[in-house]
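> run fold Toluene tolerance protein
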Amino acid sequence: MNITLKRGLTATALSTMLASSVYAAPAETPPAFVKRVADGLISRLKADHNKLQNNPAAIKAIVRQNLDPYVDAQAFSRIVMGTYATNQYSTAAQRAKFEQNFREVLIENYGSALAKYSNQTYSMRPYKETGAKFPVVIIDFNNNGEKIPVSFQLTDSGNQWKVRNINVSGIDLGLQFRNQFAANVKRNGNNIDKAIATFKPDADAAIKK
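> ok
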């Protein structure tokens, strides 16, 4: 399996992410949300395909507009920081800095992957409502007859679904990135500031696990 393709499909799908005192669940169903985001991103990639060749700025703009708003970067970054996201190991300012850096790196990685988009298709697996706090929607991306399952774990963020974690072919990216960050903390002598500043999540290495 081409690792770059897996990362690209994840980003594409990823394409396929308490405002009031009376809390209400999102009106949109989880699968409808994932399909809307994925279809919107794919449509944009198709429409601007010729403009995206050797144009990193244009790719990043598409990610920021069509993907970034639907990802719960705070929840995702807390998953990745793991125990280092607690007051015992980091301050609120350090966690905010990690989230900022993590979001920018993801935009960079997704941009690089989406630049290689070549009209892959996808199909959604049947969804069954279980009442889980973090519902999961699974998409199978089709590439020359091969199906690559990508699971999106969602969270209700202010009456709107957002993606809080991703699983590609059975590989939990949040967990793999957490292991990478923990290793980076150790490499930096447990200096959290240095670990945050130098952390670059490696999607290729994660998917190879």
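The two ends are 13 Å apart (CA to CA).
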